[in-house]
């Protein structure tokens, strides 16, 4: 880390009370170094008492050792007046050898609040990141807008919002919430690609507990209102819940390892060597999914058998668990994985799962990650609750994401794909490049029993009136429907499925498809400014 405090001449001068053996040191430089040292000591005293790291300690956790280069160290400060700098640290470092920009709010300086100086530093950092085409990580720990500066502070938030939107989809942006984030400040991380929170200390809310109580009479704690668990499991605002600051920062490092530095680049690649155990892992796929289409299983077991070394980085693990999304590699190439989770509500698509899948597919498409979709779903979740929650509008987001994606897309139907959910989960008709199905897979408008109840309604009613065994008739009709309609044969004959594969061939089929699609190019089909996505 380049730092005035570590310069040999300055260190020598501070040890000797301001003089150096080798060269004269300006008193202002020594004073600046003293201020920097005192500021960090003050930060340690304040932050450690709360069980939190200082902003600079967090940077040490984020970046490769010794790689951080600070910009504007004393910007917004007053060296002669004894003020070391502003309440935010900005600069660039390396994560796994790749350049990344950062701004880290310093709660030990005026509660980390944002004023004109802080806003200017953040916007300058983002301008540089856009020009250099590198990701930006925000370490958030702030009391919000600096009240003393009034509209000047609010104006800076507006500038940051605009810069964040300009960067969206061009460079990866990750927000790590390591303290309070309240009021208008919450929309800075809300506009970024991923939000990471910690189980303790981090919180996000538009209006705090005191305002809530004054406005509604409701008494609620900060954690219950906007803590890390709430936003990971309930609201879906956050994408990962770290056990502590080190865990949260390590997750950010891991995610960035799968993403390119910008949308102009391809994701990094990693060395992969096949092992003797690959065949055993492939064979295990045939034992995971039960033949009974109503029996649950954990789709994570399937994913780990398909990706390199079984390594899968989940995104939004605690939110909308009937869908699973995350990052992995296939033969050393990063991919995005989207899957239904039969272990939770049979893998049904509800409003939350729809938004989770849609946003992740958009992320992958923005940053050139192929999308692998593993399908096993009975459809969209029925019921008045879902209709009133906007399943039409919010479910359409999945359609929009897949239909507009131009990265390679490979879909495998593991067991069942019914109705609208079959279409939206990476079907060939919506834009997938390669589609496969396992031998026992079922593809239809409805499941056999549901279809029979509609198609043969009169016949079943007549059998009931005549005193016949209705359930036996229903079972026979359902079996006939499955044999003729629900299986994947029709989809194969229509070309909607490219091949029927054994489960143990799944990884091989995906890898071959990705090699085939490696040269896929983006095409601009119209001159429109942008689509009008359902929001």
From TrEMBL:
Keyword Glycosyltransferase part of the UniProt annotation: no
Ranges where the CoA carboxyltransferase C-terminal domain occurs: 276-535
Protein known as: Acetyl-/propionyl-CoA carboxylase subunit beta AccD
PROSITE patterns listed in its UniProt record: COA_CT_CTER (PS50989), COA_CT_NTER (PS50980)
Origin: domain of life: Bacteria
A GO MF label: acetyl-CoA carboxylase activity
Gene Ontology, cellular component aspect: acetyl-CoA carboxylase complex
Gene Ontology process terms (BP): fatty acid biosynthetic process
Keyword Cytoplasm among record annotations: no
InterPro entries given in the database record: AccD/PCCB (IPR051047), AcCoA_carboxyl_beta (IPR034733), Acetyl_CoA_COase_Trfase_b_su (IPR000438), ClpP/crotonase-like_dom_sf (IPR029045), COA_CT_C (IPR011763), COA_CT_N (IPR011762)
All copies of domain CoA carboxyltransferase N-terminal, residue ranges: 19-271
UniProt cross-references to Pfam families, sorted A to Z: Carboxyl_trans
EC number: 6.4.1.3
Organism, scientific name: Bifidobacterium pullorum subsp. gallinarum
Keywords: Ligase
């Amino acid at each position: 880390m380049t730092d005035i405090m570590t310069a040999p001449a300055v260190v020598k001068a501070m040890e000797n009370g301001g003089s150096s053996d080798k060269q004269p040191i300006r008193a202002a430089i020594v004073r600046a170094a003293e201020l920097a040292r005192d500021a960090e000591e003050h930060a340690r005293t304040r932050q450690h008492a709360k069980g939190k790291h200082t902003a600079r300690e967090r940077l040490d956790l984020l970046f490769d050792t010794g790689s951080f280069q600070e910009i504007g160290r004393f910007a917004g400060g007053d060296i002669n007046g004894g003020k070391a700098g502003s309440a935010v640290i900005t600069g660039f470092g390396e994560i796994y050898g790749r350049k990344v920009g950062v701004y880290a709010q310093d709660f030990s300086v005026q509660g980390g609040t944002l004023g004109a100086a802080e806003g200017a530093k953040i916007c300058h950092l983002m301008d540089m990141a856009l020009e250099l085409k590198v990701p930006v990580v925000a370490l958030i720990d702030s009391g919000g807008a600096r009240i003393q500066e009034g509209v000047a502070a609010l104006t800076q938030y507006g500038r940051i919002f605009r810069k964040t939107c300009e960067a969206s989809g061009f460079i990866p942006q990750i927000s790590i919430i390591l303290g309070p984030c309240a009021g208008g400040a919450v929309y800075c991380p809300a506009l970024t690609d991923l939000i990471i929170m910690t189980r303790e200390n981090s919180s996000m809310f538009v209006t705090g507990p005191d305002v809530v109580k004054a406005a509604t009479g409701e008494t609620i704690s900060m954690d219950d209102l906007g803590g890390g668990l709430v936003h990971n499991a309930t609201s879906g605002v956050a994408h990962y819940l770290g056990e502590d600051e080190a865990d949260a920062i390590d997750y950010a490092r891991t995610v960035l390892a799968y993403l390119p530095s910008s949308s102009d680049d391809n994701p990094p690649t990693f060395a992969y060597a096949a092992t003797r155990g690959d065949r055993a892992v492939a064979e295990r796929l045939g034992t995971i999914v039960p033949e009974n289409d109503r029996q649950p299983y954990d789709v994570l077991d399937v994913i780990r058998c398909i990706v390199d070394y079984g390594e899968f980085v989940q995104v939004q693990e605690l939110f909308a668990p009937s869908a699973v999304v995350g990052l992995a590699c296939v033969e050393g190439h990063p991919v995005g994985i989207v899957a239904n989770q039969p272990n939770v509500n049979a893998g049904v698509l509800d409003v939350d799962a729809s938004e989770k899948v849609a946003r992740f597919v958009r992320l992958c498409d923005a940053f050139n990650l192929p999308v692998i979709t593993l399908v096993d779903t009975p459809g969209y979740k029925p019921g008045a609750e879902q209709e009133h929650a906007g399943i039409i509008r919010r479910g359409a987001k999945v359609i929009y994401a897949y239909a507009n994606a131009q990265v390679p897309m490979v879909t495998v139907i593991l067991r069942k794909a019914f109705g609208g959910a079959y279409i939206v989960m990476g079907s060939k008709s919506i834009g997938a490049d390669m589609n496969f199905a396992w031998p026992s897979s079922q593809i239809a408008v409805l499941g056999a029993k549901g279809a029979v109840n509609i198609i043969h309604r009169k016949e079943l009613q007549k059998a009931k009136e005549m005193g016949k065994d209705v359930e036996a008739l229903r079972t026979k009709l359902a079996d006939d429907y499955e044999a003729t309609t629900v299986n994947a044969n029709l989809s194969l004959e229509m070309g909607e499925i490219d091949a029927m594969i054994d489960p143990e061939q799944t990884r091989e089929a995906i890898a071959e498809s990705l090699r085939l699609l490696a040269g896929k190019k983006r095409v601009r089909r119209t001159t429109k400014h942008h689509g009008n996505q359902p929001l």
